[in-house]
Amino acid sequence: MYGATSQSETPPTLQRLQGSARVGFSGTRLTELYQANPCRVMLPRSPGGGVEAVLLNTAGGITDGDCLNYSISAAAGAQVTATTQAAEKVYRSRGADSQVQCHLMLTDGAFLEWLPQETILFDGGALGRQTCIEMDGDSRLLALDWLLFGRLASGERLHSARVRDRWRLRRDGRLIWADDFRLQGDLESLAARPSLLAGARALATLIYAAPDAGQYLDPARELLQRVAGRAGASERPGLLICRFLADDGLTLRRDVEAFLLPFRAVLRGQPQSTPMPLPRVWAC
The whole model's pTM is what? Predict the structure, then answer.
């Protein structure tokens, strides 16, 4: 017969994901490729001589102490666009944070675009996310991260959840930008506060780090005037920062896509009327 188990007993320790993926490029050559379950790297063909890397989590989501580690490096003039195969889902946790750590390294005139798809936080979810960037003064970086509070189309609300999102950017070993975002508790009530998100349920941060970043402030502000949600741009020496807020994930995606298509073209010296296509997996 089965022994009785008290509901007050400590839940058993479950096996957790410890996945990682590393990919590196020098010029157009692949110099490193490492994959540990459940993380995988796909290298689709990319037109125009660029390099594209698609990272994916075959588990379909993370929860309760799972940890994913991504590392992307670009050197010797490599032009790399890296993204994720789908939105990352952060499911209900019994207590421990789900960890997503991303390390980006750029040297010798490389241009890296880190354009992952959304992260969706479910009710009861706990997310600790860190993005660490190391680059030299000759390289350029375009990096995006975004977060959705639940799935509004499914009627989901976040009454108890937490998120800690940290960015650290170093150029030539010197910290030039640090950014921390933290919410915990009833995210529905917290997000409604005017001093926090003023009712927004989806947010994104996009940065462009390069010696010429300041010259793109006016073009960025012009493009941000067209968004359906709320957005703004600011500039620091060698760094352009764009923030997006929206009432739902669909509005945010449309705003981010509408900005990236012409902005990526401008960064390559092309007119806004000839937008630079986004990674093909974004349309899947």
Answer: 0.92
